[in-house]
Amino acid sequence: MIRPVPHVQAMAPYALAKMEAPPGASLLSLSQNESLRPPSPAAIAASSKALMDGALYPDPDWSELRENLLSHFMISAGEVLCGNGSLDLIGCIARTYSGSDRAVLAPEHAYPFFRSAAQMAGARFDTAPENGVTVSVDNLLGAVRPDTAIVFVANPGNPTGTRIPKSELYRLRSEMPDDVLLVIDEAYGEFADHIGESCFDMVAGTNTIVLRTFSKAYGLAGCRVGWGVFPEFIASEVQKVMNPNNIASASQVAAYAALSDQEYMRETCALTASIRDATAEQLRDVGINVFDSSTNFLLIDFFDAKAAQSADSFLRSKGAFLRPQSGAGLPHMLRMTVGSEEAMETVVDNLKNWREENTP
Ligand SMILES: Cc1ncc(COP(=O)(O)O)c(C=O)c1O
What we know:
Blueprint: H1 6-9, E1 28-29, H2 41-50, H3 63-72, E2 79-83, H4 86-97, E3 103-107, H5 113-120, E4 125-128, H6 137-143, E5 148-154, H7 166-175, E6 181-185, E7 208-213, E8 226-230, H8 232-238, H9 249-260, H10 262-285, E9 289-290, E10 297-301, H11 305-317, E11 320-321, E12 323-324, E13 333-337, H12 341-358
Parallel strand pairs: 1-11, 3-4, 3-5, 5-6, 6-7
Antiparallel strand pairs: 2-8, 7-8, 9-10, 10-13, 12-13
Helix pairs in contact: 2-9, 3-9, 4-5, 6-7, 10-12, 11-12
The protein binds pyridoxal-5'-phosphate (PLP).
């Protein structure tokens, strides 16, 4: 029997959400941080039309989408690369710059795919302790070793939902060795853009990449379009390991149209934030601990892994699927995507019932 290469054989498969509603209950999917609204009507119309040309391969260089991103974000330094979701870009970056003799570093409770990307590249994955659920730049700096090649940081973080101030990211960049690649993953950046701390300007003249996605605020998770700003000399290397024709034509035009409809995306972010903050308050009112969030999800702390498992099973039995967080080193927590008001009401009511049944 043929065996995979050792570093692949040693890997566990990446754990995606498993969701199946029990008989009689309808499925409430709150485990993947998808948008609470469908994509912009302009995106739906554009992608439906693009299917007419479905016999043809897509634009391999995402030219129109790339131009739209460059001008919308007024990016003057660096190149834009688009991926089949930002997962694609994270994997390509890890394959290009890490390996058996070059390690990857991330915060302790970082997005678990950073670890998977390092493992796929055969690289050691190191972590730096956080201050509770907030990234510590001092600890990251202290964890950089002579063979550290890439530092991945999501801002805001997933599953934590917390933000690192831009000044801290500047400090990380300036105090870290210049030749370590810093990847700032802003998958939830649109939910925090009103604070005005996006890091695109850090790309100029440094080994820094900033990633974004159309999967969250733009509601296009099913279209698989991520993108990032890369220094030119890094973009040309990463592109070598990307699959050609990686984004379907219908997805490229959907992303283009969604980007052009900023008003719709801003409405989605505002609606999400208002439901998120109201839900956090309701949960706190019934004695459930929730962290403040700058994203489209909430992290709930049950202080005890068994209690988190029990609440998760209770909710699943009602058809509501949250995301357990053992994979991010937080087995006592569950992450809940912000859904519609009705969806949040269902979860809050069920958690209230769970507490009543489980309080001695
Ligand atoms: C921090 C972070 N980065 C990247 C991704 C991947 O997003 P996508 O591949 O859909 O663009 C996610 C998805 O949940 C995420 O939370």
